[in-house]
Write a structure and sequence with these properties.
Elements (H helix, E strand, L loop, with lengths): L6 H6 L7 E7 L5 E3 L15 E3 H6 L2 H13 L32
Antiparallel strand pairs: 1-2, 1-3
Length: 105
């Protein structure tokens, strides 16, 4: 029987689709641990925030810290579903125009 293409192993394992890492568990020299953990009760690791390795490399230290803290601040596994947060937040722009840009009457 042939192995099915895709699936979680292909997604989270190494390869064109995968190679996801936990940005909340850094190693030395800027490397990251593999995504996931064996069990929540038996593990010393905190809840993982997983992203593709390429995304993790492109993120600054402050972006990583922000993403991990936002993920861990929310209740995990509510209703049996994983908790997702945006990895990189975009700056909010206010709807108001500045005083200098308003038309003068």
């Amino acid at each position: 029987m042939a192995k099915p293409k895709g699936g979680l192993t292909a997604w989270f394992g190494k390869g064109p689709k995968g190679d996801w890492v936990d940005i909340g568990a850094p190693k030395k020299k800027g490397k990251f641990q593999a995504c996931g953990r064996k069990s929540a009760k038996g593990s010393k690791r905190k809840y993982p925030k997983c992203v593709p390795r390429s995304k993790a490399r492109s993120m600054s230290a402050s972006q990583i810290k922000s993403a991990v803290s936002r993920k861990r601040s929310k209740a995990q596994g509510v209703g049996g579903k994983p908790t997702n947060v945006k990895t990189i937040l975009k700056k909010k722009t206010s709807g108001r125009k500045s005083r200098n840009n308003k038309k003068k009457n």
